[in-house]
Every structure is written in structure tokens, then in C-alpha cells.
């Protein structure tokens, strides 16, 4: 492994992360304590409008869930990253990111002032600058989250399939901007009702 | 003026303002029609349809009556007040040139070739978005009315496109809950078998269009089907109403 790129950050429960990841990097997200949803968005580092698209990724792989072999596509059909290792086995990309407003819809007005992923996303885009903002928030990936869809048209949030130490590793297929919210949601089982830290590590192969 | 109709041919795009409590009925002019739709709050186009929020709040893998179509701000943009079909796809996006859904199987009765001809819906949607000062950054997951893509129920979530889901005369009605900008394309669904020799193309082999019917509607009352559907649907309606209070 070369030292050209080396990243090792712990993202605390409810915190965010934003940064560039060069093409070729192996990026690993580790669920340190288990059952932690990691809401993640990817962008072409040189063209933010060419961003991760959940629906194009789902359609082109012909399946709902992300796992080893899944290629994450932009809305223009370009490969952003490929999942090369996955000890969890299954990740959601249809459940979206929680927000204060969607919490009110889903759980009631008492949740209006709780932390949420989209607040974190917006804070991170402000920190990053460079014109990145709300319009650039597409539909995200929820690593380690389990949202099964059924043939009769149903959708459920189920207990995480993850466990302490499980990880997913991606290979960047182009220069990426990566935006992460380590989900603070406490109203459903996506974080086991107890948000916990995750670890982000990256190396050039 | 209480209403009007527009006939949109297949493989075309259009956009319109739909005022609060007007209804928009889409009616298939031929078998296999598809309408890929984007929705924005007219007064603030950074507020847009959010398919994940819409599906997860109402525990659904599809769009169907009487669901509310929710924005990223928790407001009901529109309610699906009725439809002749119980499934409208919202999880496989719209077509763009060069991408044809290579990974998705076609259910019984489908053709062999996957991937519609032409450039897909993207070009027309971007054409219409540009007229309103919007661009690629404003794209979101479309609802693909009259198309069905369902999971088979296995561990990886394998999806199958169902050909022949919509027939001539099939319809869906949306009621705007706030003033909307509606952007739509009648290009084929990206998973529709290629038009040549396929049952999903119109009798002439061309892509079928739709008729848009715009009418007045009463405001949703206490017994409205969307309000009574789920507590989440009712709260989204209430948030839309609160912004007009």
C-alpha cells in the first residue's frame, strides 16, 4: 500500500464528514458498534451535478439492495464506486435520509427539533462551500440499513442486519466528493435506537 | 375557466403550473404509455418531490391511491386521489440515452429486447427544466406513472418489469395540495422492451401518448381518503395546509 492517501477518521454518532477521495482509493466504512445507519452521498469531484443516483443504480443492477459487486452510478450513468468487500451483506438505497420535516411526518411534531441527517448534510455542504447546497442533495445510500420491499408493494424498516465490526469497502472509480451523515435517528430501529460511532478508513491500493 | 385538456404525444415532454386543489388526470392514449414526472413547489423550486420520504412514510414500494406525494420539506405536494391501476413505479428512474436497464428481467409476456429506443426521458425533462431556470441539479427520482417494476422477493431484491401493465384508457388523478410546477415526459419507461415488435408499443409501433385533464377540485375534507390513509399522510396534508393558514 502506498502512502499517497491515508485516511482514518472516527465519525461520532450524529456527526458528519465531507471530503475528496481520489480515484483508485479503497474506502472502508466500519460499523464499530453495530446497527448504525451511515447516510452517504457521492459526487463526481469535478462535476457535482453528476452525482449518485439511487434509482439509476438500482435499475442498472436489476436489484434493490447494494452489496459486493454493486456499481454506484451517477444520474448520467457514470461509475462512481464499486463495492468490493461487504461483511454486512446488504445495504439500503431507497429509505433516504431523515430530516426534521420528515420526522414530523413520520413520528409527529415532538420530533421537530431532533438532530437529523439532512441537517447534517446541509451543515457539511456549508462547510465545504464551492457552491454545494440543498439542490445537490440527491437520494442517498444507507450503509448497514435494512429496508425490505415486498412483491405485494410493501416496505418496512427492519432491525439492522449489521453487527459490531462489520464493514463495507468501496473502490473509487473516479475522483469523488463523499458526504456522510452518521445517522442520529432515534425513532426507528435503523440505529438500534442508539446511534453509535463509525470509522472511515481509506488507502490507495 | 374551470379546466382544460392537453394531448401530449409519446416521446415528448411538457411542463405546467398546477394550482392548489386543481386536479391533473393522466389518461393513457394507448397500451404501454409511460409518464415520468418531476414535481416542484412553484414558489420554491428547491422544494421537490422526495420519493424515499414518500415511500417510507407510507410503507410502500409503489405509488398508488390514496397516497400523498411528499416533498423533502414534509409537505404533501399532491395526493393520488384515484387510479385505474394499483401500481405506479417510482424506484427505477427515467431513461437516458445509453442506459437501458441491462440488469432487470422482464416478466411473463415481455419481449426479449430490453431498453427503449431513442434518447429516453432525460433530454425532454432537461429541456423543460431549463425553461424554468432549473437544470441537472434539480433532478430527483421520478414517478413513472403507468409502469410497474416489482421485487420478486429474493435476498438481493431482484426486480422485474411487468410489460402490458397499462392499457389504453388507464388513468390516474393527482390533486395538487400546494401550487406546483409539474414537469413530465412521455418517453417509454427505461425498462420497456424496445418498441419494435413489442406489445408495449402502440398499434402503429409508435410510443403512445397521454391526455392531461386539468379540473377544479374541492379542498380535502376531514374524511378525505388521503387524510384517512395513514397518520403520516394526514400529517403531510396538514403541513401543506399549515403553509396556507
TrEMBL record, chain A:
Show the stretches that span the lipid bilayer. none
Q: Where is the DUF1989 domain?
A: 10-177
UniProt cross-references to InterPro entries, sorted A to Z: DUF1989, UAAP2
UniProt name for this protein:
DUF1989 domain-containing protein
Q: Which organism is it from?
A: Actinospica durhamensis
From TrEMBL, chain B:
Q: Where is this region: Disordered?
A: 193-227
Q: Where is the DUF1989 domain?
A: 7-181
On the tree of life, the source organism's domain of life is: Bacteria
State the InterPro entries in the record.
DUF1989 (IPR018959)
Comp. bias intervals (Low complexity): 193-210
Q: What is this protein's record name?
A: DUF1989 domain-containing protein
Lineage, uppermost ranks:
Bacteria, Bacillati, Actinomycetota, Actinomycetes, Catenulisporales
Amino acid at each position: 500500500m502506498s502512502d499517497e492517501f491515508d485516511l482514518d477518521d472516527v465519525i461520532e454518532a450524529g456527526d458528519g464528514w465531507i471530503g475528496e477521495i481520489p480515484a483508485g482509493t479503497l474506502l472502508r466504512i466500519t460499523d464499530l458498534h453495530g446497527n448504525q445507519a451511515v447516510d452517504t452521498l457521492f459526487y463526481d469531484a469535478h462535476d457535482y451535478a453528476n452525482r449518485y443516483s439511487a434509482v439509476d443504480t438500482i435499475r442498472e443492477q436489476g436489484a434493490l439492495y447494494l452489496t459486493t459487486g454493486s456499481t454506484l452510478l451517477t444520474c448520467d450513468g457514470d461509475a462512481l464506486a464499486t463495492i468490493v468487500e461487504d461483511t454486512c451483506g446488504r445495504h439500503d438505497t431507497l429509505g433516504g435520509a431523515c430530516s426534521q420535516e420528515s420526522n414530523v411526518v413520520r413520528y409527529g411534531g415532538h420530533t421537530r427539533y431532533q438532530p437529523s441527517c439532512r441537517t447534517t448534510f446541509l451543515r457539511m455542504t456549508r462547510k465545504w462551500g464551492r457552491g454545494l447546497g440543498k439542490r445537490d442533495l440527491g437520494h442517498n445510500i444507507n450503509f448497514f440499513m435494512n429496508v425490505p420491499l415486498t412483491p405485494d408493494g410493501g416496505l418496512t424498516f427492519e432491525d439492522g442486519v449489521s453487527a459490531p465490526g462489520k464493514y463495507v469497502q468501496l473502490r473509487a472509480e473516479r475522483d469523488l466528493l463523499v458526504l456522510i451523515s452518521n445517522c442520529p435517528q432515534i425513532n426507528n430501529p435503523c440505529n438500534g435506537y442508539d446511534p453509535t460511532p463509525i470509522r472511515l478508513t481509506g488507502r490507495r491500493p | 375557466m374551470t379546466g382544460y385538456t392537453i394531448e401530449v404525444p409519446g416521446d415528448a415532454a411538457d411542463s405546467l403550473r398546477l394550482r392548489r386543489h386543481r386536479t391533473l388526470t393522466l389518461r393513457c392514449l394507448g397500451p404501454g404509455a409511460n409518464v415520468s414526472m418531476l414535481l416542484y413547489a412553484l414558489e420554491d423550486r428547491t422544494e421537490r418531490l422526495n420519493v424515499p420520504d414518500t415511500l417510507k412514510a407510507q410503507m410502500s414500494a409503489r405509488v398508488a391511491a390514496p397516497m400523498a406525494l411528499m416533498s423533502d420539506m414534509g409537505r404533501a405536494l399532491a395526493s393520488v386521489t384515484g387510479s385505474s391501476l394499483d401500481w405506479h413505479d417510482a424506484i427505477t428512474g427515467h431513461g437516458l440515452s445509453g442506459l437501458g436497464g441491462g440488469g432487470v428481467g422482464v416478466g411473463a409476456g415481455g419481449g426479449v429486447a430490453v431498453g427503449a429506443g431513442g434518447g429516453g426521458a432525460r433530454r425532454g425533462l432537461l429541456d423543460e427544466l431549463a425553461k424554468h431556470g432549473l437544470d441537472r441539479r434539480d433532478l430527483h427520482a421520478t414517478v413513472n406513472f403507468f409502469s410497474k417494476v416489482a421485487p420478486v422477493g429474493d435476498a438481493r431484491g431482484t426486480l422485474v418489469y411487468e410489460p402490458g401493465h397499462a392499457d389504453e384508457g388507464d388513468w390516474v388523478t393527482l390533486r395538487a395540495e400546494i401550487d406546483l410546477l409539474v414537469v413530465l415526459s412521455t418517453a417509454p419507461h427505461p425498462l420497456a422492451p424496445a418498441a419494435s415488435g413489442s406489445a408495449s408499443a402502440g398499434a402503429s409501433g409508435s410510443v403512445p401518448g397521454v391526455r392531461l385533464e386539468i379540473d377544479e377540485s374541492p379542498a380535502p375534507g376531514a374524511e378525505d381518503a388521503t387524510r384517512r390513509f395513514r397518520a403520516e399522510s394526514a400529517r403531510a396534508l396538514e403541513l401543506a395546509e399549515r403553509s396556507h393558514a
